[in-house]
Design goal:
globular, 3-stranded mixed sheet, 10 helices, 6-stranded mixed sheet, 295 residues, GMP Synthetase, Chain A, domain 3, binds guanosine-5'-triphosphate, alpha/beta, Rossmann fold, 35% helix, 23% strand, 2 domains, binds magnesium ion
Length: 295
Amino acid sequence: MRCGFVAVVGRTNVGKSTIVNGLVGEKVSIVTPKPQTTRNVIRGILTEPRGQVVFLDTPGVHKPRTRMNEAMNRSALESVESVDAVLWVLEAGRPWGAEEGRLAERLKGRAQGLLIVLNKADEVRNKALLLPVLEDLSRRFPEVPLYPMCALDEKDRKGLLDQIFPLLPEGEPLFPEDVYTDQPERQLAAEIVREHLFGRTFQEVPHCAGVLVEQFEEAPAEGGKVTIHCAILVERESQKPIVIGKGGQNLKAIGTGARKELQSLLGCGVELRLFVKVRPEWRENAAILREMGLA
Ligand SMILES: Nc1nc2c(ncn2[C@@H]2O[C@H](COP(=O)(O)OP(=O)(O)OP(=O)(O)O)[C@@H](O)[C@H]2O)c(=O)[nH]1
Ligand SMILES: [Mg+2]
């Protein structure tokens, strides 16, 4: 069997989490149309007769403006050091920029176990436009295989997996075959709330917001409810009413969406309470970042 670790890296919003979820076949990481969605390195595990792949979905590389964003970049860049293979995801229609330059520097000298994925190829209507992009990349990385794909296409994902397995060493699985992530339920809950929050806030608000689980109580008896209390941290007073919405409608919708998802994930009833709290500059606060696994 072939078993190993694969880091999925790239600029923010190129589709890394979509690829990991699609390959693993479960929702491991939250996905939103907004950049900087993934904040922690998240492990997604795929087991099949060929072997086991432990994917490290990483935060997208971007220009950091806060301590939190620095930690996100650092964890993404460091992830490539400890893995058997790296999937470097670029966007087919917008392949090279400063972020790619940073990653290229980090991946220099790593021709082995590196695969470049050109995702969102479906968004490039005129496929002829892909040719110069592929030519440019093969000049920059002559020994690295290039794989154009659409993360939403099952055939493309299967083809990608066929390229990944040969990059892994012979070995035995590390995780039982029914485990698809090692995230604790608390973290899954925080992430799901954050996904719904991202879906219902705009401009700078989602980037200034974070979610902390303050209480997570198992159901007291069979058929009982799990109680989850989450703090939604924002940075300014003016952001609080935006999250809460008119008459509390927005916060209610975030809570309902997240609760439904958590119920099906945990397989039981969930009582979810959300509290919006103003914590100026929390993204610079080491203690809060540590609590979120970001420092
Ligand atoms: N059209 C198209 N959209 C895609 C594809 N892959 C991902 N997306 C969309 O791109 C957006 C970003 O996807 P994510 O998977 O969150 O991207 P990411 O690279 O993990 O982003 P960060 O975590 O912010 O770094 C989402 O709206 C996805 O639905 C693709 O192949 N084609
Ligand atoms: Mg992501």
